[in-house]
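G.,

No rush on this.
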Amino acid sequence: MNSEEPKCGDDCKLVEMLASKTSTEQAMENAIASVRTGNISQRGAAKQFGVAQKTLSRRLNKNDVVSQVTHDASSPESAPAKPKKADQAERDQWCADHEAGESIRSLSKKYGRSDKTIAKEINSRKSNEGESEATERPPVDDQPVTPTGELNDHMKALVKRESKSSKDRLKIVAALKEIKKPLEMTMKAASKEFRFGRGIVYQDVMAAERQLAKDGNPGIRETLEEVVREAELVRKFATESLRLLQLDRGEP
């Protein structure tokens, strides 16, 4: 025989009751419910309720997928586990990798942490290191000069370091004066042209930039912006050094 008959049992009463209902959709729902009892096959239910077997099979598969997705979403076991808070060893490694040249974005992908979290840790440590260098005294003699009239070890190291640094800073000042000359020349030339009504228009500057690039020369904007960036860093480092060394008080 080509058809399958439902097996006898308590669930057969449910099959008979569902078979009495009408409408195509209701018939399909009845067929789905009957198959789920496990006492009738898809083919037998399709014949019993007068629905297409392919449609019944598709609806059963669709319901199974929806049911599984709903179960997975509601199951505590399937919920993605929150990453545990980074321990001290991991945070130390962030800073070590960053000092070695890795970017914040690279570290974020590497350790599965947010850019904000890693950047906050690194910036916090830099700030703490700066304060520590400014306020902590090394474990040596409290007085800069020992009872014998000599500098203590810390003072000797300070004088040695700054002896070289001071000479290097004078070289930087001399170099800055030389750098200032072409910058001043550019500024005065542009200013003069504006005063005499021959102001350079943006299109002329862009044409000059293109020609400089064609000739293999560095551009106007890129060189000026680079000077500004470096000059701002020089100013920042010099100003902060004065503050940390407590030489910004105006005292001789």
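When you get to it, here's the other one too:
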Amino acid sequence: MSYRGGSHVRTAAAIFGVILAFLMSAYSVFSLVYIMSSVATILNVKLGIISIAITLSFLGGAAGGALLGRVADVRGRKPALLLSAIIFSVSVILTSKITSIYELYACWFMVGFGANAENGISYAVIVELLRGSRGIVGGAIQGLYFIGMMLDVLTLLLVGFWRTYMVAVGTISLVVSVFGIMLIPETIRGKSEAHKLQEIFEGKLLPITLLGTIIIAASFMYTIPIATLIPPILRSSNLLALDAAGFISFTAAGYVSDRINRVKSLIAFAALGAISSIIIIVFGIGLIQAILLYVGTGYFAFVGIMMSELYPIRLRSTGSNFAFIIGRIMGGLGPSIVALAFAGELQAGIGAFALGSSFLAIISSIFLIRHVS
């Protein structure tokens, strides 16, 4: 692992800070998944009504990524990270007080607003802290989504009551995130010059923005329906194996992208995802097939790092977060689209949606190679 500047100890501490903040964002944003039935009972609504909050978190993420990404480029990475952490942590705590579905929707929109913005800014920080090994570090950090889910399950087992659980998740997230962010140095010197959003649509950046947006949308459309629709199909005893497969896949994909090429690695993992999708369509979903699909999510691991590398530093957080907007929206809508369009054949529908997403990623990546090589 090579460092961009400063001592190895300070840089390692900064990466540890990024890990803590990113893990807490995952811990927060997935916390609702495990108490949806309890919340539905308390609010006297159907489970499907509660699930709309998940979609709203992705829409909030699209807005937060764009707005706080610009704050990060103009005012600095650290202030933007702190603001995002406060937003998602406090919003989780406020969720413990909800008495209506609309309050839940408002709180979870803001959880997504903060958590997804934190993720996008973190990619820029990793690129600015490290000269090499960005892929494996970014992939491992992205894989913290799966670790965050494990922490949610553990916290719920320890706490029990869902309102207390939300207070615990929010409070822990706030304390740990702030501590982690304090370890991160400001990676841009001084205040960046104000810039216009239209710059990412000009000159050489135009194809990068357009193709990168499509690739990220495809990665969300592949990953989010799989991560949300497959676990209920399998026995709970198999979920730990799925989370482990996801984390290992993300880390391995990041390592491969460091060794060969980001875009070529993306094509390879998307191709693996396409093959896994065909297997699901033909044979249905079992543990082995599900693990293969989870391994195929590997190309989602380093797209944030890849996009951050492709933009100049003054546009880095703005550009990469903008590219994630459509992806976050499609990621939020994906599970509902699959569930409604393939209500009678859900397993085949998951495979078909993942197959289409994989092909979209492959085709867009082939065109992107011409602009980044």
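The chain has a mean pLDDT of 87. DSSP finds 15 helices and no strands in the chain.

Enjoy the weekend,
O.
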